[in-house]
Amino acid sequence: MTYTKLKESVDSYPIVNNSSNASQHNKEVPINIEAEQALLGGVLLNNDAFESVSEFLKPQHFSNAIHSLIYETIGNIISRGGVANPITLKDLLSQNEDFKEIGGYSYLIELSDITYQTMLLSDYGRLIYDLYVRRQLIQVGHETMIDARIFNDDNHSFKIIEDTERKLFQLASDGQQAKTITPFSQALKETLEKAETAYKRDSHVVGVSTGLVDVDHKLGGLHPSDLLILAGRPSMGKTALATNIAFNAAQLFLSDSTDGAPVLFFSLEMSAEQLANRILSSESGISSDNIRRGTIKSDEFPKLVTTTQRITQTPLYIDDTPALTIAAVRNKARRAKRQYNIGMIVIDYLQLLSGGGKGSETNRVNEISEITRGLKALAKELNVPVIALSQLSREVEKRDDKRPQLSDLRESGSIEQDSDVVMFVYREEYYESRKEPEIGTPAHAEWMGKMAKIGNQAELIIAKQRHGPIANIKLYFDANLTKFGDLAKM
User: What is the mean pLDDT of the chain?
Assistant: First the structure.
């Protein structure tokens, strides 16, 4: 019987548990030869049915090598505009010894004689794909078990976990990535739908809102799949602004706003507790330093408790693991996407990440390039905006005008190249406060007047925007509360 030969052909699949005490279902490889035969027979009789499965079902998903070859050959013929049937397949497959052994042309005729219903072909395809995933899961488990028993410097336990998570996420994603080519008409339709959505929103935001009106106005929100660089010299407020934006977006999501999203915050420099302290200070109006030291007033403590209760359910997820690799960031982000459906990622900060190279295998410029490419790929893969904070070179300090420029991005031109938006945080108040003249002099009075004008102000300089104009935006900044806000509201 042909079926018997097909069953024998899958005996080579690895079995994770071969002990005599293992139950029968643990030994069986998940396959369904009948479903594969029915699908191939249906496509041979009606080539139009191929379209219903070809987007998600690939030759490698079949459990049997001959079925895989037949399916691939059918696809090649149809893609050339030909007709795939037993006659047209016969010569193309006749030189394959396994095809001959299985019955050759007579087997193709046998497949074509299988009774089927066109509407069931998609179900057969999904079943074949599901069984493929199950076989891959067995294989991943088998490989993980083997790797866990190997001890060497290149195979530490966390690397095994990362590799396993990567394989599992790839399995979970493959079936959702069937659409690889988008017709122009479909792209236009999606563009119009987004424009309509933005038009109907009061904020006119397309993506995730920053919670800052003027910033949203210039950017149109934080767009899915975009990599945004937020850079600045130390003490300019990079982390504070990123934290404010992340919290605003998460809060909007909590209030059922379509402008918000759950946020994943990778804090490689500060602990989760320190970030929570800053947010609590910003929302309660109590100095973060006083909260940390416990020197708050008696009438402020109830306010602290009330604020905590109000913001405790905010969907903001903090990972404060230090010295992460770009691979670890990808795996953690994928997991968070599955668990919490995150809609935005923040990296604080880019230079604290490491790439995949070791020792002399790479230099820092190449490593930063690898990291920025990885972050851009992650933004596209998860379809979320990624905000990556970045340091600036010390060249800024040598200029009279300390406003940052694109050339100040530290260590790699790829930061500018790979990003969709580059923004700089600049506070003139920070620099001017260090130029205080002698008290009582005319210069001091002039200095005081200037400080009054620029006090509690910051600039967000949009130096690059792939889909919009560059701009300088004035923002309010309270250093005691590490809080940014709209200047017009203050």
Answer: 81
